[in-house]
């Protein structure tokens, strides 16, 4: 049983986690604002995403990964949660041929929809869990922590790519 002070800490940590996650779309928008098409499709290396590929990846993982996982954890008992192969999606969907503004809008919309759901659930729902392929048993709160790690990784990728671009091509 959690003491009242432990619940308060957990609720504050969860609030901070949700606040950080809600800021990702605006952070991406700030980084990609006013970039030329030639800049957003540059892949820093063969194994790295371009800026546009990062944004499309965030969108698709939000929609096909996190939204599905959140819904299933909240509505099913101990669901098995599939992995999503982001690299495969990037190739199949030709991310570098997509529209940056539309992809960012769709990512923002999907994140907002996920937050509309999360804002309606009781605090105890964040303890519900499922089994994620390749990871093991995770709670909804842990899934959100993984989302934040994923977000931060892609924000860092975008920033790194921006720093590698010649100033003239931005």
Structure, explained:
It is a single chain. The protein has 170 residues and is mostly helical. The chain has a single domain (4-169), classed as Four Helix Bundle (Hemerythrin (Met), subunit A), CATH 1.20.120.450. The protein is built from 7 helices and 3 strands, in the order H-H-H-H-E-H-H-E-E-H. It has helices spanning 4-22, 24-32, 37-40, 51-75, 86-92, 100-118, 140-164; strands at 80-81, 129-132, 136-139. It has a 3-stranded mixed beta sheet. A hairpin with a 3-residue loop joins strand 2 and strand 3. The radius of gyration is 17 Å and the shape is globular.
Number of strands: 3
Q: What CATH architecture would you give?
A: Up-down Bundle
Count of distinct structural domains: 1
- What does the largest sheet look like? 3 strands, mixed
Q: Which runs of at least 5 residues are low in confidence (pLDDT < 50)?
A: 1-9
* Portion in beta strands: 5-15%
Can you identify the CATH superfamily? dinb family like domain
Number of helices: 7
Mean pLDDT equals 91
Question: What structural class should be given to the helix and strand makeup?
Answer: mainly alpha
Helix content: 55-70%
CATH class call: Mainly Alpha
Rg value: 17 Å
In short:
The chain has 7 helices and 3 strands.
Reconstruct the topology from this structure:
Layout: H1 4-22, H2 24-32, H3 37-40, H4 51-75, E1 80-81, H5 86-92, H6 100-118, E2 129-132, E3 136-139, H7 140-164
Parallel strand pairs: 1-2
Antiparallel strand pairs: 2-3
Features:
single chain; 170 residues; mainly alpha; Four Helix Bundle (Hemerythrin (Met), subunit A); 3-stranded mixed beta sheet; 7 helices; 3 strands; 64% helix; globular; disordered N terminus
């Amino acid at each position: 049983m959690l003491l009242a002070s432990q619940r308060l800490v957990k609720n504050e940590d969860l609030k901070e986690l949700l606040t950080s996650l809600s800021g990702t779309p605006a952070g991406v928008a700030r980084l990609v604002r006013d970039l030329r098409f030639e800049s957003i499709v540059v892949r820093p290396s063969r194994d790295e995403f371009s800026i546009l590929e990062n944004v499309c990846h965030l969108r698709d993982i939000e929609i096909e990964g996190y939204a599905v996982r959140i819904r299933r954890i909240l509505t099913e008992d101990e669901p098995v949660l599939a992995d999503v192969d982001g690299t495969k999606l990037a190739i199949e969907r030709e991310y570098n041929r997509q529209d940056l503004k539309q992809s960012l809008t769709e990512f923002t919309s999907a994140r907002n929809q996920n937050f509309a759901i999360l804002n309606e659930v009781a605090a105890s729902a964040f303890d519900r869990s499922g089994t994620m392929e390749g990871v093991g048993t995770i709670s909804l709160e842990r899934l959100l922590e993984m989302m934040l790690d994923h977000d931060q990784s892609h924000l860092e990728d975008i920033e790194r790519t921006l720093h590698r671009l010649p100033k003239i091509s931005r």
